[in-house]
Amino acid sequence: MTQKQTTLPRHKTNRPTVSDQVLRKFTSYSVRRTASVIYADINRSLKHLGLRMISFSVLTMVARNPHIRQANLAEALGMERPNLVAIVNELQNVGWVIRIPDPTDRRAYGLRITTAGRNVLSKATAEANAHEAKVTQHLDDDERQILIRALKKIEDATKQGG
Predict the structure, then answer these.
(1) Is 121 within 8 Å of 60 (Cβ atoms)?
(2) Which of 26, 72, 137, 139 is the least buried, fewest Cβ under 10 Å from its Cβ?
(3) CATH number of domain containing 91
(4) Mean pLDDT calculated for residue range 21-44
(5) Does residue 8 fall inside a structural domain?
(6) Residue 146 forms part of a structural domain
C-alpha cells in the first residue's frame, strides 16, 4: 500500500528576525561564528586552485619543513592524524606532495612538496594574502596584532585547561 505524501501549501511568510545577541557575549560562540564565515570565504577563494584552507595549511607546512613526518605535522596543525592522512593522500594524488621513507624509522614517512606543489602554493599564497587583507581591512596593524595575540592567549589557556 502506498501512502500519498502531502505537503503544506507554500505561502510567503514574513519570518521574524531572530537575534543571536544573547550568545554573542560568549567568546567561543563569537569565535566559531567568525571562523565559519572566514573559512567559507577563504575556501571559495582557494577552490579554483583545488585547495581548501586546511589543504593550503598542510601544503604550506610541508614546503617550510621538508621531510616533516606526518605525526609532527598533525601535532603542529592541531589535527587528528587520520584527518591529516586523508588530506596528504589528496595532495599526493594530485602530485603536490610525495611521501619519502624515513631512513631512521621504516614505519615513518617524511613529506616533501613537489615542483607542481610549489607552483600551486605560490598562487594559493597570493590568494590567502589577498583574503587576509580583505578580512582585516577594517583593522589597523596594531588591532590586527592585538587580535592575533589575544586569540593565541585564549588557545594556549584552553589547551592548558585554564
Answers:
(1) yes
(2) 137
(3) 1.10.10.10
(4) 94
(5) no
(6) yes
